[in-house]
């Protein structure tokens, strides 16, 4: 359980498993139950006893958005004072020209990084919720693409933490009067948002991916990479 920092009244966030009443086992289509079974399967293979996952979620923080899809037509419009298209626009307080260009937003510092303070607030809230933040920075795309990296964890725990991170990002953005999205491609012509994942398998506390093979990897690591390539379409 995690104490929700965004509610006026004390509120606990609980993450639960879905149980099939007829068997009292995890529901087959519940992603969390599937993750539990995957962890148990790993142990049964003897390859390792623990798998660690470290995803790096990317997201945009926009000032506001408009969208419509009905029988009369469809549209969407994104508003962002730091968008590359704002360089010749009048904005409140004056246009300082601090607008990262298309694919020009990777790792700037303020004032070009408009989102440093809001990301810091997100990280502080995540720490309150029990997560260990390791890094945060502006990402490649214009108009407020960001990334927050937190410490790796085991599969089920990490999946729960990712959901908490998204909840936190949405709520902090809303508190600042802005809106966050984890959509993969909200801007045509600039980088989309991904969530690449660092992975490793341990056995008896030892990383089984370290070895003397290619790039300092073990056969286990190379077979693991091959398995991801083989099942890439399904993944």
UniProtKB/TrEMBL annotation:
One GO BP annotation of this record: nitrogen utilization
Q: Which residues form the GS catalytic domain?
A: 31-235
**Gene3D superfamilies, A to Z:** Glutamine synthetase/guanido kinase, catalytic domain (3.30.590.10)
By its UniProt entry, which SMART domains does this protein fall under? Gln-synt_C
Q: Name one GO cellular component term.
A: membrane
Signal peptide (from-to): none
The GO molecular function terms of this record are: glutamine synthetase activity
Would you identify the family this protein belongs to, as annotated? Belongs to the glutamine synthetase family.
Please report the name of this protein according to its UniProt entry: Glutamine synthetase
The organism named in the record is Pseudomonas thivervalensis
């Amino acid at each position: 359980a995690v104490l929700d920092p965004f509610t006026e009244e004390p509120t606990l966030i609980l993450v639960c498993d879905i149980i099939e009443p007829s068997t009292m086992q995890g529901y087959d289509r519940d992603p969390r139950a599937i993750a539990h079974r995957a962890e148990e399967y790993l142990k049964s293979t003897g390859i390792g006893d623990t798998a660690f996952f470290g995803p790096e979620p990317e997201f945009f923080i926009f000032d506001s958005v408009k969208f419509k899809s009905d029988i009369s037509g469809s549209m969407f419009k994104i508003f962002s004072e730091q968008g590359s298209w704002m360089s010749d626009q009048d904005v409140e307080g004056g246009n300082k020209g601090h607008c990262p260009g298309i694919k020009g937003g990777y790792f700037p510092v303020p004032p070009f990084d408009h989102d440093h303070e809001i990301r810091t607030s997100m990280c502080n809230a995540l720490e309150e919720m029990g997560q260990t933040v390791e890094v945060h920075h502006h990402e490649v795309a214009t108009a407020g693409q960001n990334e927050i990296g937190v410490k790796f964890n085991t599969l089920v725990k990490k999946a729960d933490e990712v959901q908490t991170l998204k909840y936190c990002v949405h709520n902090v953005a809303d508190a600042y009067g802005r809106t966050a999205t984890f959509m993969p491609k909200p801007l045509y012509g600039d980088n989309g948002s991904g969530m690449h994942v660092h992975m490793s398998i341990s056995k008896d506390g030892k990383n089984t991916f370290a070895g003397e093979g290619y790039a300092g990897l073990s056969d286990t690591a190379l077979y693991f990479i091959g398995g991801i390539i083989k099942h890439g379409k399904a993944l």
